[in-house]
Amino acid sequence: MARVLVGVKRVIDYAVKVRVKPDKKGVVTQGVKHSMNPFDEIAVEEAVKLKEKKLASEIIAVSVGPAQSQEVIRTALAMGADRGVHVEVSGDEYELLQPVHVSKILAKLALDEKADLVILGKQAIDDDANQTAQMTAAVLDWPQGTFCNKVEKTDAGLTISREIDGGLETIKTKIPAVLSADLRLNTPRYATLPNIMKAKKKPLKKVTAKDLGVDTTPRIEIISVEDPPVRQAGALVADVDALVAKLKEGGHI
Ligand code: AMP
After folding, report:
1. Does residue 249 sit in helix, strand or coil?
2. Which of 2, 27, 94, 214 has an alpha carbon 20 to 30 Å from 112's alpha carbon atom?
3. What is the best residue among 34, 98, 131, 132 to mutate for testing ligand 1's pocket, by most ligand atoms within 8 Å of CB?
4. pTM of the full predicted structure?
């Protein structure tokens, strides 16, 4: 029976139109709806499924971030996680927190909590880094199964089907291991109202990165954040000759 650590990041909700701050040093986060990173919902769901199949004994949801990160831990608890760990990092330190810092934090917690599996999302939709699972596996020196499409427990460990360019790859790995959840791994359940109420009573521990011995001093400086270029309006042409003439005029052919 495995103990599973799941990473849940609080990100700007996928449906929000993100705006760049006037000083171009980041994006507006104040007063903006945040939610659990969508791939992390899939990671939590996979852990809960393992527990339902009696293949996992306990699920610990971890979020690194400001005080509000506890909201996404509560969501994970309502989905079926047993307890939460909030690693508080806020202000400028959080704005410049990088996957390498989060990986060291998750690796330390995985060892402290004697986890057998770490399940993360394949990518956080705010930084689009796709690095944390890989680096967590490297810090722990554990095998990794990234972009998981299917995970099956076997006597020897896990058989994992991975999404790769144009197809699927099947690999076997022993546990302990680090996995990252891809979109088609499962369909996450909704947290029901009774479970949201129950989640309020589940244990949630708060620690700092310093408590875990991880230095989160920023390693980068953000020079500038820009909006994508505005798309130019299209033009209607009367016929193919006019189209060809226009393309030539624009130097496209
Ligand atoms: P990234 O490498 O930043 O694209 O993130 C990949 C995955 O790592 C996410 O889907 C989360 O599962 C986990 N992760 C990244 N940042 C955090 C965080 N601040 N707190 C908890 N989990 C995180």
Report:
1. helix
2. 94
3. 132
4. 0.93
CATH code at 2-250: 3.40.50.620
Distance separating alpha carbons of residues 37 and 179, to the nearest angstrom: 16
Q: Structural domain boundaries of the chain?
A: 2-250
* Distance in Å, CA 121 to ligand 1 centroid: 7
Closest-lying ligand 1 atom to the alpha carbon of residue 7:
22
Q: Which two tokens stand for residue 153?
A: 């427990």
In the block, residue with structure tokens 């990041």 = 9
Tokens, residue 199: 């989640």
DSSP states of 92-148: HHHHT--HHHHHHHHHHHHHHTT-SEEEEES--TTT----HHHHHHHHHT--EEEEE
Residue 228, pLDDT score: 86
The SS3 call for residue 42 is helix
Cα–ligand 1 centroid distance for 234 (angstroms): 39
Query: Maximum distance among all alpha carbons in the chain?
Result: 71
pLDDT at 253 over 90: no
Distances (CA, A) of 234 to 42, 98, 114, 240, 246: 39, 39, 58, 16, 12
Q: With pLDDT > 70 as the criterion, what percentage of the chain qualifies? A: 100
